[in-house]
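so my prof wants the structure for this chain in the C-alpha cells format not the other one, which i didnt know existed until like an hour ago. anyway here's the sequence
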Amino acid sequence: MKKAKRRKSKISRRKRAKSRSPKKRKGPHVPFQHKDVLTLKEAAPQDLELVFRLAEKMKKRPEDFLTKLKGRSIALLFQKPSVRTRISFQIGVSELGGSSVYMGPQEMPLGERESVKDVARVLARYCDAIVARTYAHSDVVELAQHAAVPVINGLSDSYHPCQTLADLFTIRERFKTLEKINIGYIGDGNNVLNSLLYGAAKTGANLSMATPKGYEPSEEILNEIKLITKESGSKVTLSNNPFTAIKNAHVIYTDVWVSMGQEKQREQRLRDFQPFQINGALINKAPKDAIVMHCLPAHRGEEITDEVIESARSAIFTQAENRLHTQKALLYLLLTRKKRK
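here's what i got, hopefully its the right format
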C-alpha cells in the first residue's frame, strides 16, 4: 500500500508541475522567413494571403502608406529590358517613401566586370533589398546566397514570382476567393507558368494547363506541385489540348510564344503554338463569366488576338496595374518582418 501511495504521489506531482509550466503560444504568422522571394516555392500560403490583404489596402488607400519605407533604398539590377517590372517597382518604392536606383545591363553585366557574389555583397552594404531581373536563374540564386538583404526575383528564365502575385491578386479581386477557382493556362511551359503552378497550388486554386508536346513544365516541378496539392486540395492537370484547359474555366491565361533569348527558335515556335492561340473561336467555347489574362508584353495576332485583348472579358490591364500594388505589399512585408526566434 505504501509503494502504491508513493507512486501515486509522484504522478500527481508531475501533473502539477506540467500544469504550472508555461504553455508555448503560437504568435502571429511571421512572413517570408526565407528572406528572399525567388520562386514562390519558399513562400508559405499565409505569406501570399498577407500580400493580397495588404495589397488590397494599399490599392484602396495609398495615402495611408506614404512613409512606410521612409529611408529605405532598393537596388533594381536588370539584365533584361522591362516596362512593368521596372516602372512598378520604381513607382512603388517612391509611393512608400523610399528610394530606388536602377542599373541596366550596360552598367552592371553580371559575372563579367565583377563576380555575382561581389556585386551582392556590395549592394547589400548600400541597399535594403535587391530586385534582380536576369536570364539565368542561377544568378538570382547566387545573389541571394551572398546578399545579407532580401533578394526579389523580378524575372529569370525559370520563374516570375512577382507576376504570379499580381495574377492571383487580380483573380481574387474579381472572384473574391482563390479556392476552387479554375485557371486555364494555354501556351508555353515557361517561367510564368512555373511560378503560377506554385502560387495556384498554395492558394487552393485549380490549374489546367495546355501546352504543345515538348513544351510542358519540367517533371521536377510537376512532382513538387503534386506534393503541395495534397496539402491544399488544388487540382493541377496537364494536356496538349487548349479546349480541355478552358472547360469550366474562370480564368483563361496565356503568355508570349517567343520570350527574350528565344529569337532563334521563333519560326519553329510559331508553327508549334499556332493551335494554341487565344482567339474568338476558343473564347466562345469557354464559360461566359471567364476572364482573359496575359502577363504582357503581348504579341498581338500571335498568342492572342486584338479582338480578345480589347473585349469585355479582358482583365489584362487591371492585371498589369496590380503589379504595383502587390509589389508594394511584398516590399513592405520583407523589409518590416521580424525574424523568428
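also thought this was worth mentioning. The radius of gyration is 23 Å.
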